[in-house]
Every structure is written in C-alpha cells, then in structure tokens.
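Example 4.3 (complexes with small molecules)
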Amino acid sequence: MIKIGVLSLQGGVAEHLKLLEEIPGVTPLAVKKKEEFEGLDGLILPGGESTTIGKLLNIFELKEIIIKKANSGFPIWGTCAGMILLAKDIEEQEDSHLNLMDITVKRNAYGNQLDSFKTTEVIPKISDKKVPLTFIRAPFITNVGSEVETLLQLEGKIVAAEQDNLLVTSFHPELDQDLTVHQYFITKASKQNLELAN
Ligand code: GLN
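Answer. The structure with glutamine bound is encoded below.
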C-alpha cells in the first residue's frame, strides 16, 4: 500500500481523496497535523486560496515539517494554489510560502476574461493520451530555474513542471474523471520512496 496525504486545511481536498480512492494500492489520507505526516509516501497540496492555506500552514505549524520532508526527497504535488505554495517567487508579492521550487508564478494569471476554462492536451512525460485540463483562476509559471523541467506549455505559458521530487500543475486533474496525472504522481512517489529506502 502506498499512503498519499492530501493537505486538508482549505480547498479541493475531497476531490483529490475521491480520485485517489479509485487507484488500486493507494491509501489516501487527509492530513493537517504534524503527526499525520509520519509514514506518508507522498503529499498533495490541493487547489484553493493560496493566501489562506499559507496562513493556515503557519497556524497549524506545518511549514517546517513539509520543508524538511521536501528537502529529503519526499514527493509533493501542488495543484493550482498548491503550485503557488511551493514556488520560490510569486509575482507582485514580497513573500513566498514554502519557498521550495525554483519557479516564479503569476497568480490569477488568466485574468477575469478567461477566469476558468477547460481544454485537453498530451503531456508527453505523463502519458501519450490527451488528458482533460481544468483551469480555475489559475496561476502559470513565468520563470523556471535550471533544475526545473517544463512538462507542459499552453500557448507559450508553462502550466506543468517538475523539479526532482516536486511536481506542479496549474490545472486541477482532481476535477475530471481521469486518473492519468494522479497515477503518474503515484508511480513517481513509489519510485522515489524506493530510492530513499536504498
Ligand atoms: N487563485 C488562487 C490563488 O491565487 C488559486 C486558484 C485555485 O487553486 N483554483 O491562490
């Protein structure tokens, strides 16, 4: 069994848990206390409101454990607000949150006109089939460091990327009935945990 935690402070927690439940061999867990991080094989930071989740991370004193785990190779996937939480830099904001991934993100980057939209694309590293992509007041990445691998660009904007154990997507795979990206993260987490154990 592989145990995947979903940070459950605010945002789209239930949707991730529901999708994870459909993947054989995975035990999904809602986590919000330090003790609950023990024994996890990976963590999902869901979409929601990054400023709110950032404040709650401080109140629940969870930043330290997440940063420590990330630095030791623990797999973390940030969707939408989760991407903003992982970023080292946020445009037009002085402070970042977890400051872990060498990316600059622009919040609400699609503006009011194109607030939310859906499309489908192939993300070659993840699957050769098109996957549904749902964007909701989404950020995109405006700059990446040399350690970062771009996984998908949409009209020239980076919307999925990876840096070792860290994965980020601007979109919300948990809102579509498609397990592809979750499956990819589970496989990534299993491999990385094997490496960590050896
Ligand atoms: N706009 C939100 C933020 O800046 C992110 C939106 C989302 O997670 N769907 O935090």
